[in-house]
Amino acid sequence: MSTFAGWALALSLEGVRLRAVPTGKAADSRRTRVLDAVEAVFEPLARLLVSHGVSSPEVESLLRAVFVHEAVRTDASRGKRPNVSRVSLVTGVDRPEVARILKGPPRVDSELEARRHRVNRVLAGWYSDRDFVDGKRPQLLLIKAKERKKPTFWGLARRYAPGVYPGLILSELIRVGAVERLRDDRVKVRMRRYRAGEFSDETLREIGSRARSLLQTLISNATGADWPRVFGAVETVDVDPKFLPLIRKMFADRSEAMLLGLQEELKSSRWRGARSTGQRTRVGLTVFSHEDGREEYASNETTKGTDSLPERRHKRRRSPKSRH
Questions:
Q1: Most exposed of 27, 125, 160, 193 (fewest Cβ within 10 Å)?
Q2: What integer best gives the mean pLDDT of the chain?
């Protein structure tokens, strides 16, 4: 078994400059490549969302809201006033929906409560439906019963997740610890919301912040920034897994030494401008390693070669000339 391992670094600053794209067949081809790139980004995001019980409709509603707000920000950066009709045209979102979204910050549509993740609907019904609640507590339910009027998990699942085999739902809830199967063939609910895994709030904020910064750096460079941000990668695609612990330690030791040195330099007062201007820029260098099985790497590979550092350095040497 071979493993693809690498180490990369990226410089991030706030803000991205956008430019027009070709039309006709060239635009169709470009759109296809954009969607291919987005699919690669969506894959790890989908794993994160599924593991935290977030449904596809919830994500889709949030994506629409982000689309709309980003279109408005783009127009504002070009000196244009927000226009519902134009935003609807460029995003593909209906005008009434655009107007509704712009009344607040991007968020999941509140009306999706009725369309939430099917497993979560089952759990919510177990806690709120009078047929399955004893006083204020969810009942211990028989898995199945011959008497139809008797409350069972089978009946609960069929009521709140029609079209899905109840046994599949029960198996998944038991697997993640949301439901406990008792010895007398009854089940006990232990969670109000389904989650196959859970990260801390701090970890989730870190994922969002770092992923956003990396994508901004890549997009900024792709759109022809006057001075490309640092982005480089070194990697090999044929590592024997038994050497991975040594490679991981090498990455950790060298990146830590480099980042500690840069941190001290960034603390210097020479980088602080006149406070009277009120202008500030967040700037930083992020280092991360990556590993993929050989098959996974081969299916996602989009560029030739395994070292992008020479290309980045070449661009940096040419950049100052382009401004004269």
A1: 27
A2: 80
Helix axes 166-175, 118-128, angle to 10 degrees: 90
| Distance from chain centroid for Cα 37 | 14
Work out the burial of residue 65: count CB atoms within 10 Å of its CB; fewer than 13 is exposed, 13-18 middle, 19 or more buried. Answer: buried
d(CA 54, CA 3): 31
Which segments within the chain are labelled E, that is strand?
3-13, 133-134, 137-138, 141-142, 179-181, 186-189, 231-239, 283-293
Q: Describe the strand order of the beta sheet including 231-239 as a list of residue ranges.
A: 231-239, 3-13, 283-293
Residue 231 burial (CB count, 10 A): 20
pTM for this model (two decimals) = 0.60
Amino acid at position 2, single letter: S
Q: What tokens were used for 194? A: 């389904």
Instruction: Spell out the residues 6+ positions from residue 10 whose beta carbon is closer than 8 angstroms to its own.
Output: 213, 214, 217, 218, 229, 230, 231, 285, 286
Q: How far lies 99's CA from each of 75, 173, 272, in Å?
A: 16, 39, 41
Q: What burial class does residue 54 get, using C-beta atoms within 10 Å of its C-beta: 0-12 exposed, 13-18 middle, 19+ buried?
A: buried
For residues 3 and 239, what is the distance between their CA atoms, to the nearest angstrom?
Answer: 5
Question: What are 20-35's pLDDT values in tens digits?
Answer: 545 566 667 888 888 8
CA count, 13 A, side-chain hemisphere, 280: 5
Tally of CB atoms within 10 A around 238:
10
Tokens representing 131? Answer: 């047929």
Give residue for tokens 């030494």: 257
- Residue with the two structure tokens 């840069």: 262
pLDDT value of position 1:
53
Distance from chain centroid for Cα 64? 15
What's the CA gap between 80 and 78, in Å, rounded? Answer: 6
The kind and range of the H/E element at 239 are strand 231-239
Which amino acid does the sequence have at 78?
A: R
* 153-160 vs 166-175: helix crossing angle, rounded to 10: 100
